[in-house]
Amino acid sequence: MSEGTADSAGAGRRRQGRPRSEGSRDAILRAATELVVELGYAAVSIEKIAQRAGVGKQTIYRWWPSKGDVLMDALARKAELYIPLPDEGGWAAGLRRMLDDSCALARAPQVGELLRALMVEAQLDPAFGERFRAEFLERRRAALAVLVERAAERGDLPAALTAGFAADVLFGVFWYRLMAVPQPFDDRLVEDLVTLLAGS
């Protein structure tokens, strides 16, 4: 089970409690990410995050039900910052830009460590697994769907390609490389995926 998991009301408290201080939030997310890199996921605790961030443990529990949720929030924030999805004017160009940005982020040591740890936690803790799917995995699939919708509106989406299939291919490859085989997130991977899904 996830360390320090709160009761079922925890997720609601994250959204219904007092407005969070952005300064404290930034410090907590930064501290959590640093500690995972330094100590590994298993050794990180809410107490250690609180000490590093200079806040009380209850401040963290007021906004997040577990350390996994803190780290998931940190990861989602990185994804939104570093994978912005600008309109590149075409399906192949937009896909290539998203993949370039995604691979660059995945190559960062702290990001790879976070992704692996959170996926493992999602298998061990069913409640966290539901939140991870809803609040992180589905959000990344929805981001890819934006590119698919743009391409469909322009008329340059390959015939029969759906957002669901594109997501299964892209994220399946990414997670396989993260969790199972030590292959790089490099330009070759980007070009292979663009060729497969865009034909160019």
Q: Brief overview, please?
A:
This protein is mainly α and 200 residues long. 74% of the residues lie in helices and 0% in strands.
Structure report:
The protein is mainly alpha-helical and 200 residues long. The protein contains ten helices and no strands. Helix 2 (22-39) crosses helix 5, helix 5 crosses helix 7 (109-124) and helix 8 (126-154) crosses helix 9. The longest helix has 29 residues, at 126-154. The radius of gyration is 18 Å and the shape is elongated.
How are the SSEs ordered, and which strands pair?
Elements: H1 10-16, H2 22-39, H3 46-53, H4 57-63, H5 67-82, H6 91-107, H7 109-124, H8 126-154, H9 163-179, H10 187-198
Helix pairs in contact: 2-3, 2-5, 2-7, 3-4, 5-7, 5-8, 6-8, 6-10, 7-8, 8-9
Keywords for this structure?
mainly alpha; elongated; 10 helices; 200 residues; Tetracycline Repressor, domain 2; disordered N terminus; 2 domains; 0% strand
CATH superfamily of the largest domain: Tetracycline Repressor, domain 2
C-alpha Rg (nearest Å): 18 Å
What is the CATH architecture annotation of the largest domain?
Answer: Orthogonal Bundle
Strand content: under 5%
The CATH top-level class label of the largest domain: Mainly Alpha
Helix content estimate: over 70%
| Poorly predicted regions | 1-18
- Total number of domains: 2
* Global mean pLDDT: 89
Kindly name the structural category. Answer: mainly alpha
